[in-house]
Write a structure and sequence with these properties.
Radius of gyration: 22 Å
Number of strands: 0
Order of helices and strands: HHHHHHHHHHHHHHHHHHHHH
Shape: globular
Helix content: over 70%
Structural class: mainly alpha
Number of domains: 2
Distance between the termini: 23 Å
Largest sheet: none
Number of helices: 21
Length: 467
């Protein structure tokens, strides 16, 4: 159910990307949409203060679980209150962040209020295994959002003609995407009120100190992660132009298939990793999971590259986006490296050494800034793509080396590295030498599948026999 809660919204989001690239008049408008959600990501990390992961950790380790719930919810609620003065200073703040319409910034603040108040209720549903409720509310959110996108952008050619929308005045179609998001977030929080009503506004001081100590490195790591993933979307329009930045952001969305896989895995795996951490064979389980995660991720990456033109026609509805299509193999492999890094992070979460998340992510953030400033002016948008790849590779390597020192886990590095190199070679050959030749590209996929089967046949046979 956690997988469905991640996969279905992402699948619907694929449809929305196709809708936006078709309906929005140009790539510059798509860039406005992209920057809006980049700023949303930064604010979300700041306001939650790493409380979601912290909540999972302390809910499993503390005897008084009610105190953990109440303290977490109170911290996030107090942080959310800080948005109120920012809302009233929108006229000053919005232009400094690059918003051309102040109303867009105001509705961003409104969305953040509802989304952040929903963080701990959603986390509570996950940790108490109420997967159906969790999935239902997540799916409801994206369904409302998608329906309103269709309503505002397709069926109502001029939403300004409707009196109920006169309170929200925007000069661009992209503004109605943000309005749809606000309504969806408000409805979702309304349905979570029953869960949130069981929480109390109270703080246990000793617990608060421990939670903040555990959570602040996650906050720093989160900010660095958002920078690693999204800073290129803010820098490209400033170093190049908004048109090419919009095309880059649109093409980047082809990585949504890999992101979908990683998110589905993470939602189910994070609580699972904590739950089995005290078992004798936990490390062996982590090693097996990483191996198969890499195998599945590699096949997703190669499949998208092998049939790149097919996937591009699904998502990108205007020719202007296709000029940045050459970033796709690099971005897919970069996302796979990020997924491996997320798997490796289990060592510092289980040992309570979350400061390493901060160290690795800050290192990545610094390298991202340096890489973008150095390579984008010289190599354009490809400089941004290769910066992302390089940063995730370095972060993954650092996490592995330190993890083996503090929490030695029997990962099969030779097999995983060989698989990654094989998929990299097939992907770049497919894109640069045989793009559009589906016979050869299908052969690449079959060859990779055969190699995996031959190297994993012992494990597969054992599982079949055990069943």
């Amino acid at each position: 159910m956690y997988g469905i809660a991640a996969v279905l919204p992402k699948a619907i989001n694929i449809f929305l990307v196709a809708l936006h690239t078709k309906i929005l008049p140009n790539t510059e408008q798509f860039n406005v949409n992209t920057e809006f959600y980049v700023w949303a990501a930064y604010f979300n990390v700041l306001l939650t203060f790493g409380m979601e992961t912290t909540f999972f950790k302390f809910y499993n380790s503390e005897e008084n679980k009610k105190q953990v719930i109440n303290t977490s919810f109170t911290i996030v609620s107090l942080a959310t209150v800080c948005l109120i003065p920012i809302f009233f200073l929108s006229d000053v703040i919005a232009p400094r962040l690059g918003f051309t319409e102040t109303i867009h910034f105001k509705i961003l603040i409104a969305i953040l209020i509802f989304d952040n108040l929903a963080v701990i209720p959603f986390a509570y549903l996950r940790i108490t295994n109420k997967a159906w409720k969790y999935a239902g509310f997540k799916i409801l959110n994206i369904v409302i959002f998608a329906f309103l996108n269709l309503l505002f952008l397709v069926f109502l050619k001029n939403p300004k003609n409707i009196s109920i929308l006169n309170l929200y005045s925007t000069n661009s179609k992209v503004g109605y995407i943000f309005l749809a998001n606000f309504i969806a977030s408000a409805f979702t929080f309304f349905f979570l009120l029953k869960t949130a009503a069981t929480f109390n506004f109270s703080i246990q001081k000793n617990l608060l100190k421990k939670m903040l100590l555990y959570g602040w490195p996650i906050l720093i790591a989160g900010l660095a992660y958002v920078s690693n993933e999204n800073l290129d979307k803010l820098i490209l329009p400033r170093l190049l132009n908004k048109s090419i930045a919009g095309a880059y952001a649109g093409t980047y969305k082809l990585g949504v298939f890999m992101s979908l896989f990683i998110m589905a895995f993470k939602l189910g795996a994070e609580p699972f990793f904590f739950n089995i951490s005290k078992q004798k064979n936990a490390k062996e389980t982590y090693a097996v999971i990483l191996e198969w995660f890499t195998i599945l991720g590699a096949f997703i990456s190669l499949t998208i590259v092998a049939y790149i033109d097919f996937f591009a026609t699904i998502l990108l509805k205007q020719p202007a986006y296709l000029k940045t299509l050459d970033i796709v193999p690099v971005i897919l492999l970069a996302n796979l490296l990020l997924g491996i890094y997320n798997n490796l992070s289990v060592w510092y979460k289980n040992t309570g050494q979350t400061q390493y998340a901060m160290y690795f992510s800050v290192l990545g953030g610094v390298l991202t800034v340096i890489g973008l400033l150095l390579f984008v002016p010289v190599y354009g948008y490809m400089g941004a793509a290769w910066t992302t790849f390089s940063v995730y590779a370095i972060m993954m390597l650092c996490s592995y080396l330190y993890g083996q020192k503090h929490y030695k886990t029997p990962y099969n590095i030779t097999k995983i590295s060989s698989l990654f190199l094989m998929i990299t070679a097939f992907s770049f050959s497919s894109f640069y030498l045989y793009r559009g030749n589906y016979y050869i590209n299908t052969l690449f996929l079959l060859l990779a599948l055969m190699i995996v089967f031959l190297t994993q046949r012992k494990f597969i046979y054992q599982k079949l026999i055990n069943r």
